[in-house]
């Protein structure tokens, strides 16, 4: 017998990057340094706000075009308009159910813990200069009719110029459906769209290199402007809201993830860089391009990602709904405003509408909260001044929850559509995200 020995060289092991080159570590380090600088040298910290603002503007500069390219390429490649409508309906049903659960959970926890009871605040003594929009942004629609009209831009160029996500989405869907109806004639246009999308993602990769600097500047400004000591009196609300977000992850998102066949903690680990980044910048738009690329890499069909994720940015505000419910009742408790269950059910109904009314208006949480309190005609609108100092901390938590919820929603709708490569999903989540 002749023995044959095969010398098979082992596969080369991929060299692991030093921990200090990991973007997550760099962003966290930037946030820690920002807190220290803001606390120890507030005069310098207050001057660093432009670092965060520039980063967010660089992302906003291309977000509209990325949404257009993603939606257009995803839908036009399917060429099945019936499938597009089915995905949209399933996504909207999911969004409405989950955000309603978030509102109920927010109301239950704030009523059980009562962080605002005993403050005895006279709203007449509070500052009244609460704006209804941020930085001159367009006013939030006040009714269903206005909201529907606002979905349609006066012109496509205006939608991109304003950065209105909903209007860009509407135009992109219509344009993609038009391309889908052309069949093979649309291929040259789709090739151009795909090339433009690749160029836009190159821009995002370069911009992400300054994310740690942006987080450093944003946190330094926040701490310098409001100080650590000023956050203590409202610490109970911060802790209550943190607990509410944790409960939402444990009681809502985790079971939904298990139902769809994936582990929530592994999914959050996969998107850890994006989740950490939004904690520092409080901007969900700053991570949209990365979410699109990673969800596709997870094995979710491009058509599902292109349709569900941009829509989720406008309608699936899980964390924001938790915020509205918690803060509205907290202000009632702080000002001694009687708010029975009947009034709270009315508040819930109003929030179901107004939480959608702020879609597409960047940083509109305060504006929508103002609108909601004005609509209830019970809780003093002036009382919003109480939470302005900690709004930045609360917004970081609800944006974090929004992003995680949007990722879960996209995978779940893909699961319903049988448009997820289960093997790819399992392998990617088990190994964790590895940069190319």
From TrEMBL:
It is found in: Cell membrane. The keyword Transmembrane applies. Pfam families: SDF (PF00375). GO terms for cellular component: plasma membrane. It is a multi-pass membrane protein. Its main location: membrane. One of its GO terms (molecular function) is succinate transmembrane transporter activity. One of its GO terms (biological process) is L-aspartate transmembrane transport. Signal peptide: none annotated. It comes from the Bacteria. Keywords: Cell membrane, Membrane, Symport, Transmembrane, Transmembrane helix, Transport. PANTHER family: AEROBIC C4-DICARBOXYLATE TRANSPORT PROTEIN, PROTON/GLUTAMATE-ASPARTATE SYMPORTER. This is C4-dicarboxylate transporter DctA.
